[in-house]
TrEMBL record:
Coiled-coil residues: none
One Pfam family this sequence matches: GFO_IDH_MocA_C3
Residue stretches making up the GFO/IDH/MocA-like oxidoreductase domain: 147-262
Domain Gfo/Idh/MocA-like oxidoreductase N-terminal span(s) in chain numbering: 9-128
Descriptive protein name: Uncharacterized oxidoreductase At4g09670
Family: Belongs to the Gfo/Idh/MocA family.
Source organism (scientific name): Spinacia oleracea (Spinach)
Protein's gene: LOC110795564
GO molecular function list: nucleotide binding
Organism lineage string: Eukaryota, Viridiplantae, Streptophyta, Embryophyta, Tracheophyta
Length: 363
């Protein structure tokens, strides 16, 4: 609920996907936003969704996406639709001067994403993808550690993993395994987070080239269910990631520097929303006769009053407020890192399709 006296950014949501429940709650909890409208292809479905999730009675319910973006009171829209529909609805929303948060992956390839980003830029609206962990205060503290030349040093390697064991229903029916809905499969879904984590650790410096690793797994429709890749930089840095719908729930990042190491075991969704942790180690070595380490890694705990999805909405709404009420320009950080993530996604896919050839990443 918006704070008294603040400019509440009014959100509309396009679609009733499961993730919409989480973001709708975030919009309601954020101090500078309010949920103004929900739209679905069916008015009945939208009404059921609003009732089931106990939306405020003042929330408008529409039987189409067009009605949401045509509503003159909607400032911003959240787009949780299948990836194949993002291009159409992000562009239409931008042309209606609506600011946009779009679920990841934002596009099927960078060409589509560029059309979306150009539409947002041409219409002066803020763009952001829905990578929530980027907005957690833990991320800023970890960023500071990676930037510390004494404690961390120079980046040498990153390893990222995001996997979960999908059940049979998911593997047969979820939109993320359907070629006409989310053709990038595990690479676009869980792989997006791994690649974003790697780029974050590398201060968003793009790798020179990427190479998909052996044995990517596809379903009968050709959609990726599991894959791995290596990223290479000209200065010798290397990163690897593993993403899969076929392995136990794992959300790990390991970042290795010349002087220190960072470990995170729940980077995407914290074990506990209000209190998270990460481990760092600096200038470790062995004791005499290499019987044990000189010292072990230390755990740092970070507390927050608001979950990361609320902090994402809060930050986005603050940017929209600046554009709408203070004549500020859209923040270009978010479209820039979104595009870089998409470029690496594209390169990994090309490498897989070309029999694991190395593929250059060109900005």
């Amino acid at each position: 609920m918006a704070e008294s006296g603040s400019n509440a950014i009014r959100f509309g949501i396009l679609g009733c996907a499961e993730i919409s429940r989480k973001v709708a709650r975030a919009i309601s909890l954020s101090p500078n936003s309010t949920l103004h409208a929900i739209g679905s292809r069916s008015l009945e479905k939208a009404q059921t969704f609003a009732t089931t999730n106990s939306f405020d009675p003042s929330t408008k319910v529409y039987g189409s996406y067009d009605e949401v973006i045509d509503d003159p009171e909607v400032d911003a829209v959240y787009v949780p639709l299948p990836t194949s529909l993002h291009l159409q609805w992000v562009v239409r929303a931008a042309e209606k001067k609506k600011h946009v948060i779009v679920e990841k992956p934002p596009a099927l390839d960078v060409k589509e994403l560029d059309v979306m980003l150009n539409a947002c830029k041409a219409n002066g609206v803020q763009y952001m993808d829905g990578t929530m962990w980027m907005h957690h205060p833990r991320t800023k503290i970890m960023t500071d550690f990676l930037a510390d030349s004494q404690r961390f040093g120079h980046l040498k390697a990153v390893h990222a993993i995001f996997t979960f064991l999908a059940d049979d229903y998911f593997l047969k029916n979820d939109i993320r395994v359907k070629p006409d809905l989310d053709a990038l499969g595990a690479l676009g879904d869980v792989g997006w987070y791994c690649i974003r984590a790697i780029l974050w650790a590398a201060n968003y410096e793009l790798p020179k080239f990427v190479t998909a690793l052996r044995n990517p797994i596809r379903n009968d429709d050709g959609v990726l269910l599991s894959c791995d890749a290596a990223l290479h930089w000209e200065d010798g840095k290397i990163a690897t990631f593993h993403c899969s719908f076929l392995s136990h729930l794992t959300m790990d990042i390991t970042v290795i520097g010349t002087n220190g190491t960072l470990h995170v075991n729940d980077f995407l969704i914290p074990y506990k929303a209000s209190e998270v942790s990460f481990k760092t180690a600096s200038k470790c070595w062995f004791t005499d006769k290499a019987l044990e380490w000189t010292h072990k890694s230390s755990e740092q705990v970070v507390s927050t009053d608001l979950p990361q999805e609320v902090l994402m909405v809060k930050e986005f709404s603050g940017l929209v407020d600046g554009i709408k009420f203070r004549d500020l320009a859209p923040e270009m950080k978010w479209p820039t890192i979104s595009r870089k993530t998409q470029l690496v996604i594209d390169a990994v896919k090309v490498s897989i399709d070309k029999g694991l050839q190395a593929v250059e990443v060109v900005y």
